[in-house]
Amino acid sequence: MSVAQIARGAVPTAARRAAKRDWTFLTAFAVAALIVVAALLGPWLAPYDPNELYVGPVEGAPSLEHLFGTDDVGRDILSRVLAGAGASVFAPVVVVALSTLLGVTLALVAAWFGGWASGGIARLIDVIFAIPGLVIAVLAVTIFGKGLIAPVVALSIAYIPIVARLTRTAASRELGKPYIAALRVQGVSSLAICFRHLLPAMVPIVAAQMAVGFGYAMLDLAAISFLGLGQQPPAPDWGSMIASGQASILAGAPEQSVFPAIFVVITVLAVGIIGARVTDWAEEKER
Known about the structure:
The protein is mainly α and 287 residues long. It contains 13 helices and no strands.
């Protein structure tokens, strides 16, 4: 089964038609697409060098020359928002991709083999789940140093239990259906059943969880950068920009914190809405 066939099977025809009339979904999709473009092309779209000092007045208000104003050292805030979009968007994508890959793999192994394999994986998941992801990320930064690599790897591990629990339940339910027993009787290999039947059936559920996980990962990574443990200056990202603008808020120039915060909120909302719609399509398919 091709990727295109899986995609067509994952979203019912009626749901696809409904999506074309769902302006909330279409708006969220458009916003998410623009954010992705900004993340890919941000440094080239930026009107100024994001790290150049005093391209404008210190803590300057928004103007035609500087649409988002300037920060406490005269850097263009719009340029820094665009340049920081890559780290702010793609780091959560890596977290979601790694946690989904590992979580789905563990879930399939637990659901397929059951017994001691399922029990052992369940205990491992419980241990990881007992420690908050943000705490794991901070510990990783403490051990391996500041930057994005340590918290990204730590959060990827911390999010595995969420994905694994959800997909194991879905996989166990799918394995109980008669067509799986028929495939086994026909001598179809375990790998073929998993990749050709189980995984395509779980695409909507996994996609919805990835959308939700992206929002949490973005917020956690922004919090880590806010604490000064993530992306290091002068390289911009939205979390560190929010933190560096705190003093400017008290000085009556909130733009340095407000604009990156708005982008964080908009991105999380857009991806969350897309994930909610995918969940609706999955439920419709089950019915």
